[in-house]
Amino acid sequence: MAFPATRLRRTRQADWVRRLTRETRPTVDDLVWSMIVHDGDTPRIPITAMPGVERLNIEEAAKAARRAQDLGIPAIAMFPNIDPSKKDETGSEALNPKGLIPEAIRAMKAAAPDVGIICDVALDPFTSHGHDGLIDETGYVLNDETTELLVKQAIVQAEAGADVVAPSDMMDGRIGAIRKGLEAAGHTNTLILSYAAKYASAFYGPYREAVGSATVLKSDKKTYQMDFGNSDEAIREVAMDIEEGADMVMVKPGLPYLDIVQRISKELHVPTLVFHVSGEYAAIQASAQRGWIDEDRAIVEITSAFKRAGASGIITYNADKLAQMLK
Ligand code: PBG
Known about the structure:
Elements: H1 15-21, E1 31-38, E2 44-46, E3 54-56, H2 58-71, E4 75-81, H3 100-111, E5 116-121, H4 143-160, E6 164-167, H5 174-184, E7 191-198, H6 205-211, H7 232-244, E8 248-252, H8 258-268, E9 272-275, H9 278-289, H10 295-309, E10 313-316, H11 319-325
Parallel strand pairs: 1-4, 1-10, 4-5, 5-6, 6-7, 7-8, 8-9, 9-10
Antiparallel strand pairs: 2-3
Helix pairs in contact: 2-3, 3-4, 4-5, 5-7, 7-8, 8-10
Ligand PBG binds next to helix 6.
């Protein structure tokens, strides 16, 4: 009887051999915990579009940082929800050295000194119009004027003890400007994680609810975030940001952009993080709640896919859950 010379199913027949021959596996070292903080007194406020994720006040954020440290999660990426009364046209609260983010950094660093703190550099949680920068009378986001503010925002974060500043605004030239500003202010060792390949995406919806920009944002961000038809442009963005001084780069969203993650890591050989964003999180949650998908299995599978594509780190709202499952 004829038989196949090679039977790939042999290495799939039992758990021990599947484990032995597995090519990639995510570990807790790959995780960055995405976290939303708020400036009120209520310890935890649920986010409707992100079941299981809550906005934390500073005290709870410090506790969560401690938990991250205990779980061995390397870093936390923090995003602010500030009181609407503090928002204005220019996002001036972003530069307040006693604002929510600087205070949260100090509290988290005190609670968990071994956990890296990554701060988003962009004005959208602070502006009354919800855009990432300053706008002119037509609503166009002004590049160079915005960059000047982002430099100041990054320095405020570094001064408060942020380990990594992560510009998510997509202005041209901001990485170089921020690097220069940090060096001048003496923050030689503050890392820059550039959201280099950030696409204008439908998957940010729940995040905008989470930081409170959804209701104020009247238009899209297509004049600064990337067009989802493009791949070569992502390579150019990353190459420019590395040239300007970025230490690590990011692809965002995650799952629909695995090809971009793979191209960047293979072609440019730079530490490439991927952001499993709010809309991806919400989609899994929504189907899991209906019993249509097994959440635990889905998130481990997705995390493996990111590793397989070449990601060196994964920013996710599931980090605490994953850290326990990947033990
Ligand atoms: C913008 C910013 C966004 C996210 C973090 N910072 C996207 C946007 O509003 O355009 C999205 C994060 C997520 O969806 O989980 N500065």
